[in-house]
Design a protein that fits this description.
mainly alpha; 8 helices; 74% helix
Length: 211
């Protein structure tokens, strides 16, 4: 077994362990950020493309910022989380755009229609419930960025990356509905499980390119 394969297995196991730790009852500050810290560290040194490593780093910052939300009534942690993830999505999208392989008009049309449907839905279902024009504009811009990231991912034709992007959008969409529209039952699991799965799929899907 190659050294790269061993490191990939180690990263996957540590990431899963970090995810399990998040859901267990252990009181550990900012434990949600541990998983992305693992992916960030294991993606350095050329193991994953630079843009992907950078995206993981900003995702880590987003998780770290978001972990302060429960301790603060301020919107600053949420804004830091949203900005960090937006930058991460831009990095993901730029990398995926360089890996486009889908050429079928039908596939391009279907992927574009799906991304547009998600975006329109966000502006109909979520944005009107966001209080304050600046925050509503920020949420709307974030919806545009993550929809574009998903479209770029679908255009790669890679199953792992495409599934990861859809799960990421599902997670963030659910988070926004839970935060701005209505409280959802089992929201913690509906948001975090797809999110962790999405990041791991991105890690594995882009790491394959380097093997």
């Amino acid at each position: 077994m190659r050294r790269q394969d061993i490191r990939t297995i180690m990263a996957t196991l540590l990431f899963i362990a970090a995810g399990a730790l998040y859901f267990c009852g252990v009181a550990l500050p900012h434990k949600i950020a541990l998983g992305l810290l693992v992916l960030t560290l294991f993606s350095l040194g050329g193991a994953n493309p630079k843009l992907i490593a950078l995206a993981f780093f900003f995702s880590f910052l987003g998780d770290l910022s978001g972990s302060f939300k429960a301790q603060s009534h301020s919107l600053i942690p949420f804004l830091g989380q949203m900005v960090s993830f937006a930058i991460g999505h831009v990095c993901f999208a730029l990398h995926f755009l360089g890996k486009r392989s889908v050429r079928s008009r039908w596939a391009i049309t279907a992927a574009s229609a799906f991304a547009m449907a998600v975006l329109v839905s966000a502006f109909v279902v979520i944005v009107p419930h966001v209080k304050g024009m600046p925050l509503a504009a920020g949420v709307g811009l974030y919806a545009v960025i993550i929809s574009a990231m998903m479209l770029a991912a679908l255009m790669t034709g890679d199953k792992l990356i495409s599934l990861g992007a859809v799960l990421f959008v599902f997670s963030d969409y659910t988070l926004a509905v839970n935060m701005f529209v209505t409280d959802l039952t089992y929201s913690k699991y509906l948001i975090i499980v797809p999110y962790f799965a999405a990041q791991l799929l991105f890690f594995l899907g882009t790491r394959v390119e380097k093997q």
